[in-house]
Amino acid sequence: MTIIEKEDVLRILTPEKCVALMREAFIGLETGKNGQPLRNIAIMPNGAKFGFMPAFIGDQYFGAKVITAQSKNQGTKYPTHMGYVMLCDQEYGSFIAAVEASSITEIRTGAASAVATDELARKNAAKMAVIGAGAQARSHVSAISAVRKLEEIFVYDVSTENAIRFKDWIKERFDVRVTVSRSAAGAVANADIICTLTPETKPFLSLDMVKPGVHINAVGAFMSTARELASDLVAASKLYADQIEAVLHESGDYLFPLNEGAISEGHLLGSIGQIAAGAVSGRTSENDITIFEALGLAVEDVASAAFVYEIYRKEQEGNHAPNS
Ligand SMILES: NC(=O)c1ccc[n+]([C@@H]2O[C@H](COP(=O)([O-])OP(=O)(O)OC[C@H]3O[C@@H](n4cnc5c(N)ncnc54)[C@H](O)[C@@H]3O)[C@@H](O)[C@H]2O)c1
Question: Which of 136, 161, 196 has most ligand 1 atoms within 8 Å of its beta carbon, as the pocket-test mutant?
Answer without folding.
Answer: 136
